[in-house]
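hi! just following up on the protien thing from before. the input was this:
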Amino acid sequence: LPNLESMGLGLIEDIKGLRKNIVPTAFYGKMSEMSKGKDSTTGHWELAGVILDTPFPVFPNGFPQGIIEKFKEATGLDVIGNFPASGTEIIKDLGEEHLNTGKPIIYTSADSVFQIATHEDIIPLSRLYEICQVTREILNPYSVLRVIARPFIGKPGSFKRTRARKDYSIPPPRDTILDVLKEAGLSVIGVGKISDIFAGRGLSLTIPTENNLDGIIKTIEAIKYTNKGLIFTNLIDFDMIWGHRKDVKGYANGLKEFDNSLPEILGLLADGDLLIITADHGCDPTTPGTDHSREYVPLLVFNPSCPKGRCLGVRRTFADVGQTIASVFGVNSLENGTSFLKDIIS
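and the predicted 3d structure came back as:
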């Protein structure tokens, strides 16, 4: 990873294969999460300035019968499943029953999610999305964080989830840096699943993506045509395809692909621009389990006006990113976080 190495990734922690005896081209550090939780939404919201004092409810024994009955009444559909499971395993176990009965597969995980898996030949995507929207309304009083459409295709023994996943999140409880920037008349572009995570709020443009490479390409295009504003990109394959599925080789190749894209991205940045690279949680494919991990996340900040970076230390909250962005654009300060702008311009 020569470009991430040059930026200082190996200076954040001891990482095998990355040198430490370098003068970094970026500012580097790590951040701890202050919110209660370790899911994607909680992490993204904290990056954008919202810290959650109470974790979202989880359902280790499946959803209460009262919720299931409301689902059945609202959709006219009976269900199968209703327990925590791996998404790939549950369609392997219950996919054939779904084909035979037409009943959607309901499951959850260690996060606050109500996931609905259906075969595209049994329940078309448009109908699945309608079901998810109705379910979102049912679950709002219960503060369940996300409803997720999980379509799949194939035959018994070879079922495969598609990329037509769609998330239905509850909105952030308070304004994020996205809301503040949009209110100030600035462009706020979400690339990837950003719109899903923020329930579409605070964005002036949403750009969906197919995979990491598509996300990188569309981010590069957004940089080219955006004069002033925020581009917020989520590269989902690190989590959904390689992290949760414990695909170490795929993860490594994905990192190389991203690293190879950095020279083009950095070459597009002008004085006054910033590139911030970080994460919303851990999802290490080399550790036991398939869930997110609550740990420090890396922080790399490239300022083309400062060719030599230095250490930003350990930040107490992801919200330092949102507060720094507020400082960059001179908008109202956020409720949470400490700006590190002064540390990256002098």
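The two ends are 27 Å apart (CA to CA).
The mean pLDDT is 93.
cheers
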